[in-house]
Every structure is written in structure tokens, then in C-alpha cells.
Amino acid sequence: MKLIGSKKVKTAVFISGNGSNLKSLIEFSRKKNSPILINLIISNNLKSRGLKFAKIFKIRKKIFNFKDKFLTEKKILLELKRNKIKLICLAGFMKILSKNFIKKFRGKILNIHPSLLPKFKGLNTHMRAIKNNEKYSGCTVHFVNSKLDSGKIILQKKVKISKNETSHSLAKKILIQEHKLYPQAILKIFNL
Ligand code: GAR
After folding, report:
1. Per-residue DSSP letter, 2
2. Closest Cα to atom 8, ligand 1: which residue?
3. Which of 113, 126, 168, 179 does the annotation list as catalytic?
4. Per-residue pLDDT at 6 exceeds 80
5. What is the C-alpha end-to-end distance of the chain, expressed in Å?
6. What residue ranges define each of the domains in the chain, with the CATH number in brackets?
7. Residue 1: pLDDT band with limits 50, 70, 90
8. Which of 7, 11, 90, 142 stands 20 to 30 A from 102 (CA)?
9. Closest ligand 1 atom to 113 CA
10. Does residue 90 have a pLDDT over 80?
11. How many angstroms from the chain centroid is the CA of residue 166?
12. DSSP code of 161?
């Protein structure tokens, strides 16, 4: 992606849950060397704990229930247009966006996934990695395409799976790396 002049790229972050990646992205975006500015938070879940960061950091938030996906995505696209959003970061967003939506933001949607893709796409990644006796798991930032967790990989970080690892302890270890990896991946796509 390209920066035009010194203007930061307006970015929306989509969340469903705790929003710890959202927080790390907001902190990153406020640094001088960051190419992005987060000015919209979208959640499919009114109870998403990460929504508190909208208030803390004074960022606009919008909540959409996905009962009618087609209609909801239409509304989201409108909201993105209104806010001149040019980049979308999915951060623990647990809904699958339609092909049509992705097409409208081709190459402009990023996702973070808690495994070393292409291993363990989808849900319950930590438990599956442990049960499979993997030595390592980790996290991946990738472009979103129309297939689940399958777009071009931008960056990955390995995390060692210890003896007696639980999915909870592994999730915690990986999350710490996620918070570093997402900003690094963003710098990378801007060639910074
Ligand atoms: C993160 O581990 C993220 O990689 C994962 O959900 C967690 C969200 O944490 N995402 C997925 O599993 C997407 N398939 P957060 O809300 O604290 O950022």
C-alpha cells in the first residue's frame, strides 16, 4: 500500500471480543512512524469488551448485528465510505465477510489468526495444535481473501508449545506476540 504525502491511512478495526489487538493497534497508530490512523471501530457484538477502547481513545464506534448479513454489510460499507476508510484490520472479528464485501476492499483487509497458517484455520486453534503434538504454534497476519484464513501471508511469529501447555496458557503466550506482529505487518505492507 502507498502513503499519499504524510497523511495517515484511515483505518477501521473490526472486533468481536476483548479487543486486546485493537488496543495495541490504536497505540501503534498514535506513534509518529505509523502509516495508519484508526478512526472507526466496528463490532458485531454489543457486549464486546473491546468497545471500551472506543471511549478511552475517543474513537467512533458502530455496532451491527449480523442477522441479515447482506443488509448489514451494505450498512457497514456505507459507514466505511462516510469515514473515508481505506484499510480494514480484523482483530478477533468472528464473523465471516461475504465475497462481495471482500471484493469491494480487495487487498485492503488484513486479519490476525492465532496459528501458523496454513495450519489450523478456523476455530479452537490452540487446542488443535496441542492435541496434534505440535512443537510450535504462533500467529499469522494475512490479507483476507474469499476463503477462510487463506489469503497471502504477510508475517508470522512462532511460539514454542511447552510441556503441559493448556490452550489457555498457549493463547496467552501467542496473544503477546500478536500485539507486536500486527503493527509489524502493517509497517511491512507500507514498505516501512
Ligand atoms: C486473537 O487471538 C485473534 O488472533 C483471534 O481472536 C483473538 C482475539 O483477541 N482471532 C481469531 O481467532 C480469528 N479467527 P482480542 O479480542 O483480545 O484481540
Report:
1. -
2. 92
3. 113
4. no
5. 10
6. 9-189 (3.40.50.170)
7. confident
8. 7
9. 4
10. yes
11. 24
12. P
Residue 109: all three cell numbers together: 483487509
Per-residue pLDDT reduced to its tens digit, 104-162? 999 999 999 999 999 999 999 999 999 999 999 999 999 999 999 999 999 999 999 99
- What average pLDDT does the structure give for the chain? 97
179 tagged catalytic: no
pLDDT band at 86 (very low <50, low <70, confident <90, very high): very high
Q: What is the pLDDT of residue 114?
A: 98
CB 35 within 8 A of CB 5: no
> Does residue 114 have its Cβ closer than 6 Å to ligand 1?
yes
Within the chain, residue ranges assigned H as helices are 20-29, 52-57, 69-82, 99-104, 125-131, 167-189
Structure confidence by residue, pLDDT tens digits, 34-74: 999 999 999 999 999 999 999 999 999 999 999 999 999 99
- Specify the ligand 1 atom closest to the Cα of 178: 4
Q: How far is the CA of 142 from the centre of ligand 1 (A)?
A: 13
Cell numbers describing residue 130: 496441542
Q: Which residue's CA is the closest to the ligand 1 atom numbered 14? A: 113
CA-CA distance, 115 to 56, in Å (whole number)?
A: 30
Indicate the top mutation candidate among 18, 21, 110, 137 to test ligand 1's pocket, ranked by most ligand atoms within 8 A of CB. 21
